[in-house]
Structures are given as C-alpha cells and as structure tokens.
C-alpha cells in the first residue's frame, strides 16, 4: 500500500476544515522535534512528504495524507507539543484542537505516540497519554532516534517505557523502537499502521 500512492490532502487549523470522515485514519503525535516528520517520510518512502516543524505556526494544524490508490486510509500528522516558549493561549488552542479531534473523530483507529529514545516519556508526553486515555483512542508508543543511544540504554528505556505504557488504559503494551536515520524498525511500524488502519 505504502508503495502505491501517498499524497498530501490538506492542513486543518480547526475542526471545521477536517476532511469528510470516509476512510480509517491513523494519527501521529509527539513533542516538536521528536522526529515525526522524519519518521513519516521514512514510513512512506517519500523524501519530503511531511515538513519538519521549523515554523511554530505550522505546528497548530492537523495535516492529512492519503494512502493507497484507490484510497484506503489516511495518516494524520498531529501538531507537535511541548514548545518551551509557547504562550498559554497557543497551548490552550493546541489542547482544544487535539482534544476535540481525538474525542470526535469517528474514523480515528489508532494514534502512534512518538517519544525520543534519549529522553523517554516526559510529563508532557504523559499529559498526551492521559488525553488519549480520556478520549478512548488506542495508541502505541514509538521510540524515535534509537541510533542516538547505546544498545544497553535503548534496552533500559524500552523497558521503562513499556512499564509506563502499562499504567495507561488505552496504551498498547508493546513499544516500537525506530530510527528514521538508520531506517530501523520501519517495517514493523508500517505493519502496525496497516494493521491499525485496516482491521
Ligand atoms: P519533528 O519536529 O517531530 O517533525 O522532527 P523532525 O523530523 O524535523 O526531526 C527533528 C530533528 O531530529 C532533525 O534535525 C532530524 O534530522 C533529527 N532526527 C529525526 N529522526 C532522527 C533519527 O532517527 N536519528 C537521528 N540521529 N536524528 C533524527
């Protein structure tokens, strides 16, 4: 499927701009700079499908990509969170958009929550996990940038992250480990996305 078509559809700065809920969707969430654009590009095999979130303004939008020809599901790039210097009004706008999307989107099958392998789950990630729990949207935690740490540290952070995930009602107990840089874990991630989107 991913070797077929993957096309950018639209950016939605508010819920009224969402595309019609006609096909299943799988969303990607994470702190800004977690490596979300890089992972989406690695996943879809496109070099610059998702742009890196260099402009804070662009991070306030939900970006939709269509996969398959004929269309069979969508990927949703959710706005990154955790900007240290974001004004409270911006954070509140982000929160409302994301919460309302998670609660109201009937075609949303699963969310992949990206967490930097160097840092593990931070309080802002835990807040996101609580929002997903409350919205009853199932999610998997995906560690990113696994190439940046030693194998022993990776094993430790994976175990710690799985222990954290088990405390959350809507979290999948198994954590995926990836590196967009080394194309590591991409096949497993692709399989997980397809399973979530199509089952
Ligand atoms: P986003 O803000 O979450 O979309 O993050 P980006 O994909 O733009 O990545 C943020 C930074 O991390 C960039 O400098 C990327 O080159 C770097 N990065 C992303 N993925 C990896 C990875 O797997 N390994 C390494 N070493 N760096 C990565």
TrEMBL record:
Keyword Coiled coil belongs to the record: no
SUPFAM superfamilies to which the protein is assigned, alphabetical: P-loop containing nucleoside triphosphate hydrolases
InterPro entries: G_ENGB_dom (IPR030393), GTP-bd (IPR006073), GTP-bd_ribosome_bio_YsxC (IPR019987), P-loop_NTPase (IPR027417)
Domain EngB-type G residue range list: 22-199
Cofactor: Mg(2+)
NCBIfam families: GTPase_YsxC (TIGR03598)
Protein name: Probable GTP-binding protein EngB
Native source species: Novosphingobium flavum
